[in-house]
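Checklist before submission:
- one chain only
- standard amino acids only
- sequence pasted in full

Submission:
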Amino acid sequence: MPATSYTPKFEEPVKDTSIRHVSEYMARKVIAFSPEMNMYDAIQILLKNKIAGGPVVDKNGKMLGVLSENDCLRLLTLETYHSMPNHEVQHYMSTNVRTIDSDASVVDAAEKFRKEGLRRLPVLHNGILVGQISRRDCLRAIIDQKHQQERELGGK
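Returned file contents:
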């Protein structure tokens, strides 16, 4: 039997005051890069930690951009293999980065993931990186919401 996709008749976002904030589900320990970091060191960190990228922040934690695997591949495509000079992350990072505020709801995050095709979002508080939220984190919020509703129904 082929898999089918369920699309509700109405695509209105859920507006429920019991929905939790991004800050409750985000990962707080995020591997971040400095703009002055050597690209080879950054690539080794990506490989060692089996991650596809990470935020680039200044010494105060202000978000400057993101360094992705795709950004790193520019070392091969823009430089000749044998004469690759050392480069800094700031020359290769992407600066047009989608983020979300720590006070936003997980529903807001889920909407961004669905509409923009993103897998994770850096979380900012007053422009400072405080964490990262992923699609999987939003899935945890769905289960938590279901359990909360079951407790409320069971208690009546």
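Reviewer check: The mean pLDDT is 86.
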